[in-house]
Input
Amino acid sequence: MSKIHKYLSGAFLFHFIALGLFPQGEISEQPRIFYRNEKSLGILLNSNGIGVNGRYASRINARKKTIYELDFVGIKHSKEYKYSNPYNSNRTFVFGKLNSFFNLRVGYGKQKEMFRKVDRGGISIRRYFSFGPTLGILKPIYYEILEPTSDPYQYNLITEKFVTHLNQQYIYGKASFFKGINEISVVPGAYGKIGLSFEYSKSDITIHALETGLLLDAFPKKIPIMDTEQNNFLFFTLFISYRFGRVVDASGIIDEKELMY
Output
């Protein structure tokens, strides 16, 4: 199991235990809001990268919502390992990396509340799914390379992309992120996501939630992140996220019959 998979498993276990430690049984005196639209932001930690998410949830009834969301995430190759030049240990680089890869996802989906919190310290459990188009963004990586001269003790510092025959010992470090920004290319694709949300806010008008789930990005061709034949066109991801936001529209209390839907 990779380090990031171990971290995800440990982080989710920690959050799950932490949720169980919230005090239970404290009855809220604030008005209960059942009809509610929500807007929120999420910080994503994926098994292959990190990112952010924005979501708007529009009510269907007391338990169901339609969700619209936008993700922006960075995706790493499983073979990425950081190195440093022995003469410049403060500068790290990923040997063999061709492109930084980012995903911009636009999604539509549904959410259903399976368990409603009944007191101020409770937890609301929701399941949700979303799907939609994704735009893969590729930005070339440049390296600062030590070029030998006629003097064995002197080198020129040049900036170039990675090539297969490049000797690792001549890489001084990674060039500025903005180098190659004018060479960005895009690859359209699609994604699907399923997950669970554990909402634990003590206020009925704010949102604090931990989420976990599975996600798949699919593209029509392999994405050249690394100089290897093992690049992929399918990216399967495990994720956890912290979400925070507010209720932006509410229509008051509903009757007991509608709570059954």
The chain has one domain: 3-80+96-139+177-260.
